[in-house]
Amino acid sequence: MSRFTFTIAATDGRARTGAIAMERGTIRTPAFMPVGTAATVKAMKPADVAASGADILLGNTYHLMLRPGAERVHRLGGLHGFMGWDKPILTDSGGYQVMSLADLTKRSEEGVAFKSHLDGTRHLLSPERSIEIQRLLGSNIVMAFDELVPTTSTREVQAAAMERSMRWAKRSRDAFDDGGDHAAHNAIFGIQQGALDEGLRKASADALIDIGFDGYAVGGLAVGEGQEAMFGCLDFAPNQLPADKPRYLMGVGKPTDIVGAVERGIDMFDCVMPTRSGRTGQAFTRTGPLNLRNARHGEDQGPLDPTCPCPVCATWSRAYIHHLVRSGEILGAMLMTEHNIWFYETLMADLRAAIAEGRLTRFATDFRALYDGAGKGETA
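C-alpha cells predicted for Queuine tRNA-ribosyltransferase:
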C-alpha cells in the first residue's frame, strides 16, 4: 500500500467520489470522520465505530498533549495501539482549541503561549511542537498549525492571521519532513484561511500550493457565520485548491451542511455534532432531528428512524430510548451516539453512490425536502 494516493472515481457537477489509499487502510470519499477528541469517540467502542462505516477517526492535539501527554501515548504504542483503532487517524493541529479553550493566550510569530484549561500549567504550541506531538501520537494525516480569527474580524486582522498561518504552514511542512520514518509513511495537509474573503482565500491557497501538501483543508468556517455565508465561501474556496488532492472542510457539520458542501467539491468532514447530540438526547433521522426527551416518544414502539440500518434501530424502540435518556442512564447516551454515527456514515455512503450514479442533484434535493420538512424535526 502506498503512503498516500488520492483517486477520483467519478464526478457529478463539482462533487467527487473516490478513495484515499494509505498504509493503514483506504478512506472512501466523501468521508465523515467521527471525532475522538481524547483518544475515544465518546460512548462508543472502536469496533462499533468501524462497523458504522467509518474509515478514519480524528484525534485532538491540544487535548492529548495536556492529558495523558503525547510522550506517554508514544511510550504506550501510539494512538492506534493506545485506543485500539487500526485504521487511519487524522489529528488536528491544536490551533483552534488553543484559541477557544485555553486561558491567557499570547500569540507571537513563534507560536501561541497559553495556560491549560485543566490545571493552569503553561505551554507553548508552535508549528514545530504541534507537528512533533502529532508524530508522537502516530498520526496518519497531520494538520499544519494555523491561526484562526473570527470571520467578524476586520480584513486587516484576517489578512495578518492568514499570512502568519502561511508562514506557520511552511514551518509545519519542514517539521513534518524532518520526521524521518514517520514522514515516509504518513501525510500532511495544509489549511486554507482567509475568512469569507475571496482574495485572501486565493492568496492562502497559492501559498499552500507553493509549499506543497498531500491534501488541503478549508479552515476558519463553521464558527458562527451561518450556512448561507459558509456556502457562499465554498462557492469559490474549494476551486482555489488543487483538483487532484483531497479537500477537507474542518468542523462541519449539520447533515444539510455536509450535503451542500459535497455539492461544492468537499471530500472530507469532521464534527462533534453526532456524538454531542447523542449525549444530549438528540437523534438524527431522515425526517429531521428528534428530541428523545419529549414526552410524545414515551410509548412509541417504533425505531428512531425506520430507514436506518443501524443496530439500535433494529433492536430498541423510541419508548425505551426515551426512558433511558430521561433517566440519565449511560446506555441512553451509548445508543443515541451509535445511531447518530451510523446516520452520518450512511449519509456519506448514499452521497458516494449518488455521485457515482450521476444523480446527486436529485438525491440532495430529496434529502433536503425530507430533512427540512415543516414540523418534522425537533430540536433538543
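The chain has two domains: 4-270, 278-373.
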